[in-house]
Amino acid sequence: MTGFASHSGAIVAPPLPDAAQAVQAGGSTIRLSCQWELRAVNGRGLDLRFRLPDWLEGLEPLLRKRLSASLARGNVTLSLRVTRADPGTALRLNAEALDSSLGMLAEAEARAEARGLVLAPVTAADLLHLRGVVDSGQDEIAPAPLLPELETQAKALIADFDASRAAEGHALAAILTGQIDSMDALLAEARALLPARREDQAQAVRAALARLSEAAPQADPARLEQELAMIAMRGDVTEELDRLSAHIGAARALLTAQEGPVGRKLDFLMQEFNREANTLCAKSQHAGLTRIGLDLKTVIDQMREQVQNVE
Length: 311
What we know:
Layout: E1 3-13, H1 20-24, E2 30-41, E3 46-51, H2 59-70, E4 74-84, E5 92-93, H3 95-114, H4 124-128, E6 134-135, H5 147-215, H6 221-234, H7 238-255, H8 263-283, H9 287-307
Parallel strand pairs: 3-4
Antiparallel strand pairs: 1-2, 2-4, 5-6
Helix pairs in contact: 2-5, 5-6, 5-7, 5-9, 7-8, 8-9
């Protein structure tokens, strides 16, 4: 789900019909420079955030539609910065906005004084940073004609973004495959230990039966053997190993899937892997099998972290 792409573009914008600056400049168009940036980090769902110029009304729905069609998970931020490229374009002071800001500032100082508070002095630079005080001329631009070209630029940006995610996905698939191979090897090692474990358990059952017979000679030997056999059956781990093997097969199939997001399915499998590994450790009653169970849990935890990066 992680990815990054940036794109630079230029666009020629028609001004509003009554834009005086276009007449003063002797032209009928305004040149703009566009700086795009698209980045994504891990997330359980799809969270789209946009940082776009306020005056470009109608652009966010177009971008949201394109990103939603391309992404399924992740915290995604798309930023666009649009600046005037005309060399002769100068910033202008919006006197009306400045007067309004000064009025609000005076009222704020008066209220603060009434409560015995002294506010820090306000500089001219502070005033110029207030929204709307400096006019960059975007209000002279008609936004609607820009949308098709901006959408085309966004399409190229998203294509680069998808390419970066694909490259990371190939590397991530290799890591996950290696972790699955490690689990498969541990599973084979566990199965190889089962005959020795059964013999150890049989000896433990015989020793327990002998101790019980000495402690309670009146007890029914057949009943004692039946209870010990039930204990041995509850300690059988064949079912857990079979389920782990099935989960490994399912994980391999998901990693080779050609279409559709698989991150949520892999995330669910990680829970199942962990559940079976916990049960294996709880039922092992064998030092070698316990070690394998703990090694499995380590690999599963490492794989779970990587799975969070999968869409």
